[in-house]
Predict the 3D structure of the following.
Amino acid sequence: MQMRGRVAKRFEDDINTDYIIPAYLLQESWDKQFFADHAFEGFDPTFGPTCRANKESIVVAGNNFGCGSSREQAVYAIKYNNVVAVVAQSFPDIFFRNCLNNGLLPIQILDTSGISIGNDLVVDLDSRSLRDNTAGISYPIIATDAAIEQMKRGGFLGVVRERLRQKLKAQQTRASS
Amino acid sequence: MPGATITEKIVSRAMGRKALAGDLIEALPVDKLYFNEVIGPPAILNFEKDFEDVYTESGKKLQVFNPSRIAFMPDHTVPSCSIKVSQGIRLMADFAKDQGIAMYKEGDGIEHTIASEEAFVLPGEIAVATDSHTCTQGALGSLAFGIGTTEGENLLATGELYSFTVPETINIKVNGKFQRGVYAKDLVLHILGVMGEGGASKRVAEYTGPTIDSLDMEGRFTICNLSVEMSARTAIMNPDSKTFTYVNEALARRKMAMTEEMRGMAARSDPDATFSKTVEVDASSIEPTVSLPHSPANAKPVSQVTDPINSVFLGSCANARESDLTIAAKILKGRKVSPNTNLLVIPASRRVYNWAMDNGLLKIFADAGANIESSNCGPCFGKHMGILAPGDRCLSTSNRNYKGRMGSPEAFIYLGSPAVAAATAIEGRIADPRKYLPAGES
């Protein structure tokens, strides 16, 4: 499975979710697109228009992208601006899991410093490589088998629905026996 | 075979089989789940949207996995600060009533404070909530961490967390006696400075050593609370007699007592447990500490900082329990807040608020010129009660001083202990609390 996009934004280390979407907006809407319209408000207001200029954008960062608050709205703010993947040197757990649950690919590679804005990137989950077509370099993707599988699946919803179905069936069997 | 960490033991207990760091658990059953009013409403709406048809297929009504294991705690911007917030709280209250879930009232307290004060989370349990500071419960010896909205809705349905990797553990071993005027907050800010914002990524920060053993529970909650600022998966401490005394008192307030089963869930790391790393910290060398803008890991001794401050916030899930208000009141008693500075005091729960009222602390704060608000997250969430303007400088006892966290991205936030907050409020600039401590006060 492959995803292709153009690098729209680059960030340094330790970008926290407060920068991605400020707290005062979190309770003001239950619509995911609302958060995309306010992405990086107060930190980098060009984020939305720049990412939306491509049909598929990719965001590149240093270490620890998405640290701090657990707000999943940070993932909506990125994803619903046409962003298909975030490439970084590391991700904290909560943000990483929130990405997986929403089909935004959190791609970890050893060193992101060589990837420039405007470069054409291909994420290949089967070969576990990130190809920079512009620079002609390939990077191995660091990920567990489970994370790769979840990235391909685009989230857990199908799994959870099936699990719930089984649980409800087991309850029924217990009740009738 | 080496011994196990407390984290491995808790997961092993939950799974009914031995689990080791690095193991992938496909479905981890969770003991306790709580929601605030920020994420509760969308999680409930998504739960209904994504699962209602599965219940209907099975001839059942929409029903959460186990209402007695779930609690709703509106705390971030209460009393409600907007129409949409009020709608969200009502949605939670209606759902709670329909499903038989405990719904706390606005002002009952900050979720992480209530969860321990009400003995909702117990030692040895796995607890998750839709907030990164859920790691606070690690002080009880529970494995507790934050989740997002989607995991929240999944948990409402099945009570399980999917594809969970048992984390490795960093042993943060703390030795030495605190100097006068040094508290748990100074220690954890110092540790954040050593580790950096990403320093504990993917791992549990387990605090051990004589200094941790000597701390009261409130100090332990503070340390676990701030551990997410070094990106720890969570923080944890090994339960001891202080933990059980705290939990017994919390249960007694609810006319309950600890059962054999509850007691049996508690675990401690084996002496030969495997840690990915051990970090030794000498607590006796630490001075009162502040973290400068704009990172919690930007820690400096308070003696090196004298920046002017026009707003002081004594509150949040990090530092607004009884001992925190007590030390601030000792410093502020008979003194006045600087004419250039606002002091805002928000106790961490209704219980703490009422205790502070009964014991004269609220009068001390009011006489000093403080603003006192009912329990909630206050300006730490950046939405109400003391939002900062461009150029404002705030000293806060909370846990995050990111740019824009409490209002304008052009404001400056410093983090410190309740003692530093009180001294700073008096002087209108970052101040060393040691000169204000009454004789004999440590």
Observations:
- The mean pLDDT of chain B is 97.
